Amino acid sequence: MKVIIIGCGRVGEQLARLLVEEGHQVAVIDYDARALERLGPNFKGQKIVGVGFDRDVLVRAGIEQVDAFAAASSSDNVNIVAARIAHNIFHVPRVVARLFDPQRAEIYRRLGMLTISSTTWGAERMRELLTCAELDPIFSFGSGEVSLVNIDIPSQLAGRMVKDLTVPSEINVVAITRQGAAFIPTLGSQLKEGDIVQVAILATALERFKNLYGFTEGG
Fold first, then answer.
1. What are the φ/ψ torsions at residue 218 (nearest 5 degrees)?
2. ∠ at Cα 81 (76, 82), nearest 5°?
3. What architecture does CATH give domain 2-118?
4. Is CATH 3.30.70.1450 correct for 132-213?
5. Phi then psi dihedrals of residue 142, to 5 deg
6. 3-state helix/strand/coil string of 159-205
7. What is the pLDDT of residues 28-82, one digit of tens each?
8. Cα distance between residue 145 and residue 198, in whole Å
9. Rg (alpha carbons) of the chain, rounded to whole number
10. Distance in angstroms (rounded) separating the CA atoms of residues 200 and 172
11. Which residues, at least 6 apart from 55, have a Cβ–Cβ distance to it below 8 Å?
């Protein structure tokens, strides 16, 4: 996959390294040559000094042939302008913009653009870690509307079935890890003490889940 990344701050740098390690062709654009030095001399991708929403700079980076575009600078305005150019003018198939202002993120999400609000995601992730003592959050989707959590099955839930933990459209068991091996359960799968269960939970159902199954806040 060919990818352009705008911004070589901490996020842009790490994203570029991850993609290159996976074998993707990556071009990183930043107006500050010193920022691109973060990538080091052994970086296998392309490093371009320039403004991320400048048409000529984008063409030089190969935007007409790329499969994906990530706007990851520290400026919401730059990210949105660059993302809209990639999406609306060059019709890049996959465009994601990093935004700090959650209100802006919602506006552009409604326009069909993929956004990551680091402010909202970070706050939601911290809330999970602070309040879900017996639930181990693995990942949040969207802006925190759905969480994937690890649950160590306690003795009081041993012998229950997956269907007993399932609430359609709110709580779904995704996988069970038993004695180091994971599998995808059916509704009739029985839970055993010591199982680690991965559950997708709607944020609005988290309190209900904890109350129903005896998980407490604060340990």
1. 75, 10
2. 100
3. 3-Layer(aba) Sandwich (3.40)
4. yes
5. 60, -130
6. CCEHHHHCECCCEEEEEEEECCEEECCCCCCECCCCCEEEEEEEHHH
7. 999 999 999 989 889 999 999 999 999 999 999 999 999 999 999 988 889 989 9
8. 17
9. 21
10. 5
11. 85, 89
